[in-house]
Amino acid sequence: MTISVLIFDKKNNLFGSAGFTHWPALGAINSFIESGSGLVVTQANLNYAYGRNGLKAMKTLSPESAYRKISNGDEKKESRQVALINSKGEKFSFTGSECMNFASHLIGEDYIIQGNILSNEDVLKAADEAIKIGNSIEERMMNALKNALKAGGEVRGIQSAYIKINKINTEEDPYKELYLDLRVDESKEPLVELQRIIDIQVIYKKFEKASDLFEEGQVAKSLMVFNEVLSSDFCTDEIRFWYGIMFSDTKEETMFDPKELLKKLLKEKSWKELYSRMGLK
Fold first, then answer.
1. Is the dihedral of CA 131, 136, 142, 146 positive or negative?
2. What angle, 0 to 180 degrees and rounded to 10, lies between the N-to-C axes of helices 48-57 and 63-71?
3. Mean pLDDT of the chain
4. What is the DSSP string of 196-246?
5. What global pTM score does this model have?
6. Per-residue exposure over 11-47, b if at least 16 CB sit within 10 Å of its own CB, e if not
7. Are 134 and 195 spatial neighbours (Cβ–Cβ below 8 Å)?
8. 111, 136, 134, 137: which is closest to 124 by C-alpha?
9. What pLDDT does residue 173 have?
């Protein structure tokens, strides 16, 4: 009842999955990811235990061996579909003989595509063509899903969609391992809404980068990133407010006047109240 894509982006130290289905809240139950371990996506007659057990097993086993271990004794494994990628980029996918047609999977150089109850055989082929196109892991994933839907998608249509991306390996704070974790749990057009949320989240990632540069004293570099953020259609008043706070006293030349942006926002009750609570006048 699902199509999902998994990508291992070694160059950018990122891996993750994305998918859609005709069932609410897909991303809450089918995708499992852990830096330093791997990525598991379970679907069709999904088995939630495959996720956590698969991640644990891949700390010492290859994806195929991990699958053999977690599926051992599972009487319903032929009704399941599962894909695994470990932190080395090794891949494995299984489509049970009892999965409802059309059901199959493809394994590419750095990705896996799997689907079941698909409209036709061309859906996976369409996703395979599009997953190779894009400048980022999230763009490649969304291109694949959009093309799969265009080719017919799932027989019943779609109701929810998700994207989840982590760093492959990191010694940082676990919170910083998570690059994207976004879901549209119920919608008539979940891919459209998911794309909108991704675009906003990517802008906030750049905002965080600009803020970090500012805190490090790299003001000129911070302004360069802020210029890109503030030029975006997905920039928000939240970002404009903090930009105004940070750069209101700057002597650097700015593309966007921080004082004017702040002055405009402070005409609104909510931003004026926040400004006051910060002890500013």
1. negative
2. 130
3. 95
4. HHHHHHHHHHHHHHHHHHHHTT-HHHHHHHHHHHHHSTT--HHHHHHHHHH
5. 0.92
6. eeebbbbbbbbbbeebbeebbbbbbbbbbbbbbbbbb
7. no
8. 111
9. 64
